[in-house]
Amino acid sequence: MDSNAKHLINIYEPFTCKQLIKESTHVTASTSAIVDHISKTYPRNIAEVVLISLSDHFMVFCVRKFEGGC
């Protein structure tokens, strides 16, 4: 694990954040990496994360649940 990953973990842990993106979001012929981040602290508030491929960098969307009335 590199120092950037350790730094990110140190930020996430005190807030009990979880990374939602589990698949690579930047893909080339020879490499792939997760370069985008969507984090959550309350799992029940997130319906899904959607990745859409338009180029070598995926567009990332997060669908949030809304519970309650207006």
Radius of gyration: 14 Å
Give the CA-CA distance, first to last residue. Answer: 46 Å
Helix/sheet category: alpha+beta
The profile of the biggest β sheet is: 2 strands, antiparallel
Assembly category: single chain
Number of helices: 1
Taking pLDDT < 50 over at least 5 consecutive residues as the criterion, the unreliable ranges are none
User: What would you call the shape?
Assistant: flat
Quantity of strands, as a count: 6
Order of helices and strands: HEEEEEE
Describe the model:
This protein is of the alpha+beta class and 70 residues long. The chain has one domain (3-64). The chain has one helix and six strands; from the N terminus they run αββββββ. It has one helix at 3-12; strands spanning 18-19, 26-27, 32-33, 39-40, 46-53, 58-64. The relative contact order is 0.19. The mean pLDDT is 84.
